[in-house]
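Re: your question about Ser/Thr protein phosphatase family protein

S., sorry for the slow reply, the queue was backed up all week. Below is exactly what I fed in.
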Amino acid sequence: MYELQSLINAAVANVTEIIKSTDKGGPCAKYKKALVAAKPTALFTPLLVPDAMVNLCKTFGFYTNETCEENFLTQDFGATWAQVLALAEDGDYICHTLGPEFCPGPLTRPSDTSRLFPRPKPEHVEIPEATEKRVKVLHINRSKALHLASLYAYFKCDAPKGACGGSLAQSIYTGDIASRDPELQMSRDYLE
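Result:
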């Protein structure tokens, strides 16, 4: 844990130095450089990033102290921002979110969605008649969770292979799933 805290402390010091510098590229270049310096911490110590973001937000007055906490504490949006930082290809959106005076809003990149669903839809769809045949479906719910899923979830939380045998038509595993309510409306007790 000491090594992880050392990494986050070094990153905060580096980000602080970059923000305080008189970079000739303007505020957007400066803040994007700071995000590049911060990204490794989001990859290696994602659980420590939200507190560092709150402290940097307060130190540089990006928002009021209360808003910094609302935006960046782990139980609010901090975990989400840590994921965004870890997966970011550039800092355009993050910088613009801090304030339009830092970076202009990024343009939406054109995307080709024509290959997402390549099969043509059938012209004449026939709905099968209902039958009395029963279908076996297994639904497993992890209601006895001892702890919450990690920041990026538990990737082995899936229907157990033994339960997905050929005798079942479908198996559903609903472990570690929360509703999609706004994060401010979900408490730790609710998620547990």
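Strands lie at 137-140, 170-173. The chain has two domains: 2-98, 134-192.

Happy to talk it through on Thursday.
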